[in-house]
Specification:
This protein is mostly loops. Helices cover 11% and strands 0% of the residues. It has a domain of 29 residues. The relative contact order is 0.09.
């Protein structure tokens, strides 16, 4: 029928490496970008000058009674 195959001649195949789809890659950030991302500051309240306290000029507890002029 055909040739006899010797056990020593049989090639072994490994599975190919998994490949991600074209559009699903994630960009690797550099050192400067990582540093900027870690030092994110909160918003500044113009009424009391505090940063990252969860309120702004309109909701500042120190400026609630004072009227604010609209431009």
């Amino acid at each position: 029928m055909g040739k006899e195959i010797n056990c020593e001649e049989v090639a072994t195949y490994r599975e190919p490496n998994k490949v991600r789809a074209k559009g699903c890659g994630k960009r690797i950030k550099g050192g400067k970008e990582k540093a900027v991302g870690n030092s994110v500051k909160g918003r500044l309240c113009k009424g009391c000058g505090e940063r990252g306290v969860g309120h702004n000029l309109r909701t500042c507890p120190k400026v609630v009674g004072v009227s604010i002029s609209q431009p």
